[in-house]
Amino acid sequence: MTDTLDPLVLNVLYAFFGGVLTLSFMWLGCRVFSHLVSFSIPAKLAEGNVAVGLMIMGMFIGIGFAMGLVIGLGLN
Known about the structure:
3 helices
């Protein structure tokens, strides 16, 4: 099937589905982590707790980096 599709179209599809997959895993990771900690992440962010913001930022960067590697290595 990939022989009939233009490589440009195929790469755009990979990028789109990779982005959707990455955002889905980031959302799921945040939800799971929110259930593991003993405080409400949105409430602490609303209070201006910088440590919680940095924790969420690190989690998003880590998940995004991991998914980017998986997607990037899958294109070879």
